[in-house]
Structures are given as structure tokens and as C-alpha cells.
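Document type: protein sequence-to-structure record

Subject area: structural biology

Format: plain text, a pair of labelled lines:
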Amino acid sequence: MNLLGSINSANSAHTPLKISHDFYSYLLLLWIMVAPTQVSAKDFAPIYSYKSSTGVMSFSDMEPIDVEFTVYRSDCFACEVDSLINWRTTKLYLTPYKNEINQSALKYGIDPAYVRAVIHAESHFDHQATSKQGAQGLMQLMPATANELGVKNSFSAQQNITGGVKHLSRLLRKYKGDNKLASAAYNAGEGAVKKYGGIPPFKETQVYVERVGILHKRYGRFSHRYKD
């Protein structure tokens, strides 16, 4: 049983675990120690940490409602093959990082709704998100990629979005405006797209491309809500 499973077995389903601040630090350290050997890739669902109304640090594997929270460990948000999220009805984020997204999209000539869809799929709009592979920030830039894009701080929303959009625009030019191929390359790498002559036969990449497409269309319908 993985660490989150152990936590949940001692609590009712989806009930937040309340622990002291000191033990919080211990739990995070323990998670880091056991994750590489005891948790498989598909087990990396987001873990949300937040403070309850009484100020107690709490954890949940379901997104808290109406409170500020942090995703402690997350993988690509839209890559979980067996995700139970309904991508056609899940909540959209129409206003966060509006200026950063619009300015970068205008600068590099791509649809801001597509940028918003990729951010949603990659990090669920958590600028502190870090994947198990080391991807960082809103658009989940790997350190080497961030360096090539001139991003010095991937946890800076402005820098991350600027770098990610620059990367997306290059992919769109390479694939002649094909959003699906650009999404596939963003997720699996350009080498994989070249090797397979299209979207790679990886289930995680295939569901990612599909979900980014769904989100793109949905954000596009509400473009007037977040454009200047």
C-alpha cells in the first residue's frame, strides 16, 4: 500500500487528514523517501494541502472547495489515463494569469485559449507544481528546456508562461498549426512524434492530446471573459 493509501485507510473516504505542523514536515520528507520505489506513475494523483478553518494543516486527495490550497506533488494533471474527471464539464479558470497569457500569446501569435488549455492540463494552474520527472511551474517546463528558453525561475508565473508559450509557438510552426501534434510533442517530445509519424501510441499522451483539445474548445467559447 502506498503512503496516501495508508493515510486514507485510517480515515473515511476523501476525508482530510488533520495533523500538526511539525508532523507535516515529517510527512513530506517521508513521502519523498518512499515515492520513487513504492509508488507507480499512475498512482501520482494530486495531493492537496490547505489550512482548515481552525488553522490546522490538512491533506486531501480531492480538491478543496472555497479555500486556498497547494498541490504538494503532482504529475501532468491531464495525463492520468484512468482519470475520473469529466473534462467537458470540469471547472474552467477564465481569469488567472490573464495578462501574462494574453501578452505572451499575442507576442508569439497563438490562441490564448490554447495556452490556457495547456496550463490547465499541465499544472491545473498551480504555479508551484512540480512533477516526479522534475518539470516545474504552470506550463511544467523541464529545467533544460527552461534554460534553453531563457527562463531563470520556472516558478515565476510570468517567466514560465512566456517560456512555455514560446515553446508552443515553435511547435505549432513546426507542425504547420496542427494543435494535436503540437500537444503531443509538448507532452512526449518531438522525437517521439517523429518516430511514430504522428501522435505516439502512449496512452498518457493520447489522453493528454484529447483533453487539451476539449479544454481548448471550452476556453475558446469563453474567450471574451478573459481577454482584455
Q: What stands out?
A: The CA atoms of residues 181 and 198 lie 7 Å apart. Strands lie at 17-18, 48-51, 57-60, 70-71.
